[in-house]
């Protein structure tokens, strides 16, 4: 058990969230689950998503997630970006901007290709600015368009 574990307070859809997260991301599983009674709703759970351990709780409708906290998904390539993006959209997520998407449970995700990070680490500030400017116009990140902006700078 790691010393620090994110603890997510859901309004009331913890079970649906962990079912979706663990089905969508590899290296995921549901650990311990506490229910109200033997057949009642899940009140709390321990789960792993993409190798990261989480604790979750159904805390009531006054709990909401804010954009100041998001889950960052390191994607190997455009195909992996598309896979996760499409899974989130198909589940009812709302795309926002710059690779961010809010899942149907209210949690924000950043779906980011590794190539983006490589491009913005360039020592040429003109190239970095061109990539950042291109990224700021996108909803889902597009590796080919980011590379084109880099090459044109």
Task: Describe the protein.
The protein has 153 residues and is of the alpha/beta class. It folds into 2 domains: 1-64, 2,3-Dihydroxybiphenyl 1,2-Dioxygenase, domain 1, CATH 3.10.180.10; 65-153, 2,3-Dihydroxybiphenyl 1,2-Dioxygenase, domain 1 (Roll), CATH 3.10.180. 35% of the residues lie in helices and 28% in strands. It is built from 5 helices and 8 strands, in the order βαββββαβββααα. The strands form 2 sheets. Strands 1-4-3-2 form a 4-stranded mixed β-sheet, covered by helices on one side. It has a 4-stranded mixed β-sheet with strand order 5-8-7-6. α4 (125-136) runs antiparallel to α5. The model has no long low-confidence stretch (mean pLDDT 96).
Total number of β-strand segments?
Answer: 8
CATH superfamily membership of the largest domain, which one? 2,3-Dihydroxybiphenyl 1,2-Dioxygenase, domain 1
Please report which band the strand proportion falls in: under 5%, 5-15%, 15-25%, 25-35%, 35-45% or over 45%: 25-35%
Per CATH, the architecture of the largest domain is Roll
Please identify the top-level CATH class of the largest domain: Alpha Beta
Class from secondary-structure proportions: alpha/beta
Give the total of domains.
2
Mean pLDDT: 96
User: How is the largest sheet built, in terms of strand order?
Assistant: 1-4-3-2
CATH fold-level topology of the largest domain? 2,3-Dihydroxybiphenyl 1,2-Dioxygenase, domain 1
